[in-house]
Amino acid sequence: MAKDLLAVVTGGSFGIGGAISKRLAQENISVINFDLQEASDPDIRSCHKAFFEVDVRNKGVIDNAVKQVVETFGKIDILCNNAGVSTMSRVQDLTEEEWDFNFEINSKGVFLVSQSVLNQTMLQSQSGVIVNTASMAGLKGVPLLAHYAASKWAVIGFTKSLAVELAPIGIRVNAVCPGFVRTSMQERELKWEASLRNMTPEDVYKEYLALTPMGRIEEPTDVANAVWMLVSEDSSFITGEALAVTGGANL
Ligand SMILES: NC(=O)c1ccc[n+]([C@@H]2O[C@H](COP(=O)([O-])OP(=O)(O)OC[C@H]3O[C@@H](n4cnc5c(N)ncnc54)[C@H](O)[C@@H]3O)[C@@H](O)[C@H]2O)c1
Predict the structure, then answer these.
(1) pLDDT of 125
(2) Which of the ends of the chain has fewer CB neighbours closer than 10 A, N or C?
(3) Band of residue 2 on the pLDDT scale cut at 50, 70, 90
(4) Phi, psi at residue 73, to the nearest 5°?
(5) What is the extent of the structural domain holding 223?
(6) What residues line ligand 1, using a CB cutoff of 6 Å?
(7) What per-residue confidence (pLDDT) applies to 1?
(8) Gyration radius (Cα) of the chain, Å
(9) Cα 192 to middle of ligand 1, angstroms
(10) What is the total count of domains within the chain?
């Protein structure tokens, strides 16, 4: 890769975003973290050249943070739209608030940050790579997660459409689709799912394992390695893909 590359990672403080931050830093890329709060793990925090308190739902805050990054560091080469949330509910009980919460962060957030980075730097430099964190739930139907799945199918539709728009100027846009990843999101989901299905979290965890043909729970580094693959020049002719990183759980 060329020298002095700069990446913005959203939701870079914890979980998959923390692992993406570490992987990019390992490749000597300067990583800027856009998150609601700074990383508590010093190993992750030390990978961040700067932290901006950004809620990916807030266009004004995003535009200002991107402006400051471009003024300070010159340009943004890589954007990883990773910030995301989930809630669990059967559709019959799903509230409008839950639907909006998932869509505003998971889908609209990807649009707002992408648009800001494109308009303030990538379209001028006519270069860049975007990798969005979608989900296995963006490739198939998932009970208790219809709203979340819909928000991730939206990410994949946006990824493919933007990829076609930007291909003529050489900006690539791809998505990764993780499976059952060991993060705080998974810890919350294990408890919610257990309660909704009258099971124990341990039994739900065993189901996740059984649903993963490769026989282990996915680690954030599994996703981060795939993100790096899509960022790197080895993927220079790959755009508009939604790459499953699931150990076979989506098959
Ligand atoms: N854990 C899984 O099994 C799994 C599977 C598939 C996809 N994903 C996706 O991976 C991504 C990362 O999830 P994770 O498992 O690491 O979750 P996590 O909860 O551990 O981390 C999510 C990160 O996003 C940040 N964030 C949340 N809302 C935000 C907002 N409004 N603005 C800015 N930052 C915000 C959080 O502070 C946190 O740092 C999400 O998009 C998630 O949907 C996770």
Answers:
(1) 96
(2) C
(3) low
(4) -110, -5
(5) 6-180+219-245
(6) 10-11, 13-17, 35-37, 54-57, 82-86, 105, 133, 135-136, 178, 180-181, 183-186
(7) 60
(8) 17
(9) 16
(10) 1
Is residue 130 domain-resident? Answer: yes
pLDDT digits (tens, 9 = 90+) for 223-238: 999 999 999 999 999 9
What is the rounded CA–CA span in Å between residue 203 and residue 192? 13
- State the CATH number of the domain containing residue 37: 3.40.50.720
- Asked whether residue 210 is domain-assigned, the answer is no
- Angle between helix axes 109-117 and 146-166 (nearest 10 degrees) is 20
The Å distance, Cα 11 to ligand 1 centre, comes to: 6
104 part of a folded domain: yes
Q: Name the residue at shortest CA distance from atom 1 of ligand 1.
A: 181
Quickly count: other Cβ atoms within 10 Å of residue 126's Cβ. 11
What's the distance, Cα to Cα, between the start and end of the chain in Å?
Answer: 33
- Closest Cα to atom 31 of ligand 1: 55
Closest atom of ligand 1 to CA, residue 180: 3
Q: Which helix (H) or strand (E) holds 102?
A: helix 96-102
